[in-house]
Amino acid sequence: MSGPALIHVVVSGLATGCIYALVALSLVIVYNATRTVNFAQGELLMISAFVAWTAQRAGLPLAAALVSGVAAGGLLAFLLERAIIRRAVSATHWDVLIITLGLSLALRAAAGIVWTNEELPFPALFSNRPIAIGPVRVAPVSLGVIAASLILMLALVALFRASRFGRAMRAVAQNQTAARLMGISVERVYAGSWVLAAVVGGVAGVLIAPVTFLSTKMGLIAINGFTAAVLGGFGSLPGAVAGGMLLGVIENLAPLYLPTGIRYSVPFLVMIAILVARPRGLFGTLERRKV
Amino acid sequence: MRAAAWAVGGAAALAWPLMAPRYFVFLATLVAVNAVVAIGLNLLSGYTNQLSFGHAGFLAVGAYTAAILTLRAPALPVPLTLLAAGLVTALVGLALGIPCLRLDGLYLAMATLAFGFVVTEAITNLGSLTHGNDGLRVPLARLGPWLLDTDRSRYYLALAVAAAMTLGALNVAATRTGRAFLAIRTSEIAAQASGINPAALKTVAFVLSAFYTGVAGGLFAFAVGFLSPDAFDVFLSVDFLVMIILGGLGSVWGAVAGAAIVTVLNDSLASFQAYRPLVFGAIMVAGMLFAPGGLAAMTRRQS
User: Fold this and answer.
1) Of 1.10.3470, 3.30.390, 3.40.50, 2.60.40, which CATH number belongs to A3-277?
2) CB contact under 8 A, B288 and A276
3) Tell me, what's the ipTM?
4) Would an 8 Å CB–CB cutoff place A121 in contact with chain B?
């Protein structure tokens, strides 16, 4: 394969990878604060995309529609955390995991009832007709997705480094008891992390919807997000980003070298391989539990 | 009192095909099949506190093993076919379990999820063996001179197997190994300190769980008579989880009750497909919030 064509494949892989990275980040944000995985994360981002679609059809300009979709996802996450997850806070992580699994089923069904189970076209911010940059041809949508994701990631870095809330989240991730003793409201961090994760996921949702079409099944992208997070080391934010990019590129390159039948199994085979060979991922640290 | 309950339950199960219309005999067969899966999943999730999203994959391995074996060796008596289906699935479980059980609960859940997807992809792509997406017609099961060609005969087969495997599971919980499972469930660290090897026991539980599900897969293949990969998607694995959550984690009878309720609910919601996951999701959320021990805990509280 020629160099420029290979670059085209890698760039579009990086664009998909950015989406995976954002989904992985949203999973890790909730995990770091609450130590459980939100299985409904994918469905939250699906609902963000549907709300954005509805808002745009109702006459809002596209940009405003996308923002309202993301905001709706954050609001829904806040309500779910308050009404349901908060009640189960004293329960084991196992119980919360099953609750989020139930929520994911219920939200997907509800979206199917409110909207449709068909696939819908989603208005695109960026064109997918390739443009030539020197000898290389890339699709503007790839560059747009990469740029938007990078901006969001930088904003997250700023939030975690510089804001009071970001520091509180990092403190809770490190040691919940100590954080509480320092006067941090752990409950507020829980709620905040659910909202933040839904916002990050929602951005991923409205970015990917034009490419994959809008459907109630788009929440399954959370599985790839989880694979990405595991690849980078679950719990590590930079790891989630690196894992997402890597997974996107692997997934795009694999069909060139592997039989077509294996294509759709690639993320899962990557997940099993990484879990078997190096469960802590590329950047993760070995977690030691104390009695 | 207890003996009377057993006698009434047993008699009702035996007399069911004589009273019920044909379709409900088939439905009862599915209840028996799902009960075996639920008991198997419970051995893993209920006793060793690990979540599996891959049991539809195990069911598929068992079902296809039984179907292909019957195609190649039509004279094989059905108990041997089912045993083979269980053993092949157990081997797959062992191959998956040895590397994956080093993983913590969450990672194991994800590895099993990935396993489920890989199984359906493999079935789709191994066309020469499985006929891929076209589906595989399962030949009739044979028991010596008899061909199990009626819903009634297949019901009795499923009932007999389910009864045997229920007894087996009740006894696992009464053995040293079973008590070790319970110890791990209560506290893995305390169990380890008492001389239990959690890694080895989790592997045993995983393999046993796969065996149960593989046998159920064989029964499933004969009961429905037609297999295709899309029947074994991740949502089936979630259905199995709903069964044991509803019934109560760790309870054999809870698993049977959960399997019965979910199977019948699935059937009665068949014409309301859109609402089915909504109902199941609500059951999971409400179950965990208001009745964490499931049906088993509710009956226990009353007695």
Assistant:
1) 1.10.3470
2) no
3) 0.82
4) no
